[in-house]
Hints:
Elements: H1 2-18, E1 25-26, H2 27-34, H3 38-50, E2 54-58, H4 59-62, H5 75-84, E3 90-94, H6 96-99, H7 112-118, E4 126-129, H8 135-139, E5 143-148, E6 151-156, H9 158-162, E7 173-181, E8 187-192, H10 193-196, H11 201-209, E9 217-218, H12 220-228, E10 235-236, H13 237-254, H14 281-294, E11 312-315, E12 321-324, H15 328-339, H16 349-367, H17 379-401, E13 421-422
Parallel strand pairs: 10-13
Antiparallel strand pairs: 1-3, 2-3, 4-8, 5-6, 6-7, 7-8, 7-9, 11-12
Helix pairs in contact: 1-3, 3-5, 13-17, 14-16, 14-17, 15-16, 16-17
Amino acid sequence: MAQLSERILQDVTSFFVASQDFNGMPVSVLQERLEVTTEDLMPAIRSLLEGRMVVPAFYSHQGNHHILRLEPPPLSEQLRLLEREAVDKVALYPARDALLARSDLSLFDGQPFTRRLALGEPQLTPAFFELRVLDQYHRDPRYEFDFREYSGMLTIREDAYLSAETPSRDKVILQSFGIAYDQKGRRVVAAFLRYLRDLTPAHQAIWSAHQIEGPCVMNSDYRDATCFGRWPRHRSAYSALLAEMVEICKLSALIGKPSLFRRTWEQGRPQGFQPMLRPTTRSLEDFVHVLDKMISENIDREFFKGDLPLEDSRERSDGKSVVTTPGTLTLLERWLSKLYRTADGQDIAAEVLAPLNVIRKRRQAPAHRLTEDTYDEELPGQQDALVGDLVRGLTTLRQILSSHLRARSYSAPEWLDGDNIVFY
């Protein structure tokens, strides 16, 4: 049996090394190549498993067994599955010790993540990085950068890819990355070796420089979706804010008014509307600017027409009249104060307007003074707090509008009023 085990290890290793995608050798192929019976083959494979010389992938454990997606189960479970699984649903991979003797490992110099795959690590092994590693792609117009909820992707844009001005080293794609958390609960980036290998050596070096060596935990929704194909259990507060705007516009139509917001984002989202990538005061100022444009500057004054005067007039000391145009937040406050009260007669406008006014004031402040950019790891939490307050304000506005007699047929999406809205 020792001779057969040695042949199995040689064939499995050769197959893995020659493959383009670090593939395992199906046991059915191995059996045909060695021309042995199942009764002779299985004891030799068990011996290799027990000696930690080969690693199995079972279809029932990880789906596609032609690549090593996940860490294999414990040895006792491996031996049990080996007895039960069909030979064409099991593949074998050389263990790390066998691969350390590869003569071609120098091919992966300067490609640390590809090298880890070449040494047999599962393809969905996550590596963790500082969040700011994403910032360079977000700010570089050559890249399409999409980051939302718990995951994202980035790729070189087609025009940049085709341009002779773009160095080959910068023509990269990262098919998927996700949110994870370090020991202090701070957001970090998780990316699987399977996708990191697609980066050029220059960009693998960039990511390697931002790698976090301490323990980190992947967000459960990202892990479950990418590793196991499960639907996420939560929705982000950022998505809730966009959804509230859509629902408010639906209610606007039901009560016979123009949409309160000139634009909503059923698909996609505004540039820069995402969790903070670099914890600096400049990043927070930029985000506040985006929020104000999404809300205050996006309110359609026509919504208030017929209920309120859209201009103010006052008489000056010299007897002449001065006409001014109130801002959209002022109009919204007047409209709510005029038409809606709580059950005990209290003005409800402040509950809606408070977070909107905070955004407007924070946006105006940098415009009137020079500010120094500072780095502060508390800033992402401050940004999330702004979004959370704004979601609560818009939810209140939606609930106010839904109390209108003409809106009796309206029902909100269940998740908007549920308890699964989170900050990833």
